Amino acid sequence: MTAIPQVETDERIRIKDTQAQKVRRRDVSSGQTEQLSKGEDPGRLRYLASDEFAAWDKLVDISPQGSPFYRSWWLKAVGGTVSILGYYKGGSLIAGIPLYCEKRYGMNIYTMPKLTQTLGPVLAPSAGKPVAALWREMEVLSAFAKEVAKFPIFFQAFHPSLHNWSPFYWNGFTQTSRATQVVDLRPADKIWECMAKGARRHIHRAEGLGITIEPCGPEPLWQAEHKSFSRQGMKVPHSVEYLGSLYDAAKANDAGEIFAAYDGQRRMHCACFIIWDRNRAYTVASGADPELRDSGAHSLMTWHLAQIAAEKSPVLDFAGSMLQPVELFLRSFGAAQVPYNWVMKFPLWLKMYLVARRKI
Fold first, then answer.
1. Most exposed residue of 6, 40, 144, 339, measured as fewest CB within 10 angstroms of its CB?
2. Same fold, 10-172 and 181-339
3. What is 10-172's CATH topology?
4. What stretches of 209-273 show up as alpha helix (H) in DSSP?
């Protein structure tokens, strides 16, 4: 990841911190005020250096927003220019937001890496009364919003657990809601019972045809993706090399695997890439042979992934599509729709273009 200089110089921070101890602080966005006690650290923003990534991963471990996409190994694997803007309180890292930047048409665009479901702010859990926790959340999110508002173009999908985007709204951002499909994997022995009868029937059909699920590499998965996208007249939005870099990073960190469904003739029916950490498991890429889609292999694959995920995480997130057939299929496995926020800031001309292309 590329390190970026500190947001403010240490001398400027020292002066501001001293002043903050003597005066009342007003939150311009909310119109509310609070009194800083003498000696209280008002918090500051700073980009993390490469030797601080271990501390970042520890924050991801404990945060309600924690997921594999925030891990330092994933942020390194996506390539490009990635930095982490941290929020420090009392000398400790209590929050951060990963920032992925691409250069397009001579402009810096802060957006989402390919095959990455969510980014956005990551906050340490707050102890104490709910009102104090909300103050802290507003404090942190306001600091992030004011900083990233300096970027001309910004798109990020926030983790489903982070409902609060008000500080970003107050700083000129807009929002749209999307939905993913999530299965609660606890207790694991209830997964089968929570599935629809049709899903169980398709699984039995695939097993009766002798279809088995086996680990494979990124190349077979990419070929399966190519078949799926070609059927829709589209190209795979990422290269096999990019897929391979994510796969290699996941394997090196014992955090992912690619599986494929084969029949007795060694025909591959479908394939899927799953990643996980202690907080959440995700299916991040999949593809299938459209000529073999009636075999039940996709259902057998989904059942297999749920069992694998249950050994690693409490939740399986299908990084869901808003397409109705996909939602109906996943619902048959007991998946529930979970909304999350896309938070954006861009010029009017870009908004008109995205609306015309039905991107927002």
1. 339
2. yes
3. Aminopeptidase (3.40.630)
4. 218-231, 240-252
Q: Are 149 and 171 in contact (CB under 8 A)?
A: yes
CA distance 343 to 178: 11
The pairing of strands 122-123 and 256-262 is unpaired
Closest by CA position to 65, among listed 145, 160, 175: 160
- Positive or negative torsion for Cα 78, 79, 80, 81: positive
Domain ranges of the chain: 10-172, 181-339
* pLDDT tens readout for residues 105-124: 788 999 999 999 999 999 99
Do the Cβ atoms of 165 and 158 come closer than 8 Å? yes
205-to-172, 181, 215, 263, 298 alpha-carbon distances in Å: 53, 24, 21, 12, 11
Distance CA 137, CA 124 (A): 9
Q: Please tell me the predicted confidence (pLDDT) of residue 187.
A: 85
CB-CB contact of 156 with 321 (8 Å): no
Tell me, what's the pLDDT at 72? Answer: 97
CATH number of the domain located at residue range(s) 181-339 in this protein: 3.40.630.30
Q: How far is CA 226 from CA 93, 219, 220, 236, 271, in A?
A: 42, 10, 10, 6, 11
First to last CA, the chain: 29
Query: Are the C-beta atoms of residues 267 and 289 closer than 8 Å to each other?
Result: yes
CA pair distance 6, 11, nearest whole angstrom? 12
Buried b (16+ CB within 10 A) or exposed e, 134-151: ebbbbbbbbbbbbbbbee
* Beta bridge partners of residue 215, listed in sequence order: 259
Q: What is the pLDDT at residue 15?
A: 35
User: How far, in Å, CA of 1 to CA of 79, rounded?
Assistant: 8
Amino acid identity at 163: H
Tell me, rounded to whole angstroms, the distance of Cα 331 from its chain centroid: 21
Q: Would you place residue 323 in the very low, low, confident or very high pLDDT band (cuts 50, 70, 90)?
A: confident
C-alpha span between 184 and 190 (Å, rounded): 10
